[in-house]
Amino acid sequence: MTSGNGAMVADDETGRESQRPQDPQGPEDARGRQEPPPGPGTPPPYGGPYDQAPPPPYGPGAPPYGPGAPPPYGGWGWMPPLPPKPGVIPLGPPLGLGEIIGGAFGTLGRSIAPLLAIGSALYGALVLVVLVVGVAGYLAFQDTVDAMAEQDTLDPFGASDAGVVIALGIVAALVLLAASFFIYGVLSALSFVVLEPAVVGQRLTVTEAWRRSRSRAWAVVGTSFLTGLIAVVPFVAGVALAIGLGVAVGEGSVGLGVLLGILLGLGALVYAVWMWTRLSLAPAAVVLEGAGPVQALRRSAQLVRGSWWRILGISLLGWFIAQAASQVIQFVLSFMVVPLMALPIGFAESDGAGAVVGAFALLAIVMLVSLAVSVFISAFIQMITGLLYVDRRIRTEHLAPVLLEASGLTAGAPGPNPYPYPNDGGYPGRHV
User: What pTM was estimated for this model as a whole?
Assistant: First the structure.
């Protein structure tokens, strides 16, 4: 008979030798308490210091081998598995700051085609309409316009048909304003439309993205208009009141009037920031839930409750990142434009037509680059808002399992739609 760990001990009756561990671990611990067998994802019922791996288990309580075995632990300790990430964000725990910013950049990278195609088409159509209407109006009323321009003093009705020209100009301005609002609504809705499938690892064609964003454009415009009325108009009124009271009180005491004006102005500013943050998720609700403007404002207030400071901070950070990127791109463009402007001069020395062509080519390049920058900057800011909306629903409404099912990771095919909006024939898993 020998002694020590794992020693061989002779049996008193049969003389046979048996092997047993010195420390009773496994089914029972040292105090005789029964330990449950380790389940999936939990460490075995024994262990040692985290800086060294435990001995391999054996016996009835040993964890299984193969694909069903729990992950090994040791070294730095057991680490939980990473949450699944079918798209631009992980669909597990609530999103952190880095995941929101990274998800916005990832969505931009996946959505270059629809953003550029739809943005270029809309702005190009707007410029074309303005040129056609302007040229046609000038040719139709050339004499009247020239007569109005040659007057020494401004007399709009001094020439014949001047009233007709002015009326047509007002109508054209209103049409241009409406077209600008529509473009803003489409591009704002487009940011949320392309974000929605990007979250679950899917993509949209340009045609589908245009159809969905166009259908929600005016609802987004209405939501933005109501947000402005609620947040900006009281702010302007408060500033005007502060100035008026400051001037009135300042007649007797300048210092008191200035102090009163500053306090009222700061109060109006605080109100505007508070209300803007509270209603900031409304455009996302309009597009992703199909809500009307008033319903979307209420929905935003509900989602923002309890996370006002976080939403304000991340929104401001996203805005600063977008502005910084815009300034860097404009700085680079300024160095590119200077040598390009020398091209028309060189063409002009040999051919006047070449100067004209070169000037138009330069203008087209600058306009296209500026257009792309403005589209992407605006989309990035809207995507930050959209990911904040998704994060709030993950935190308060347990949206992550529904998004996982929509991505097809928890089922053989994409499951129910993650957003409460009637399915309009889009990709599977859209709008519950």
Answer: 0.70
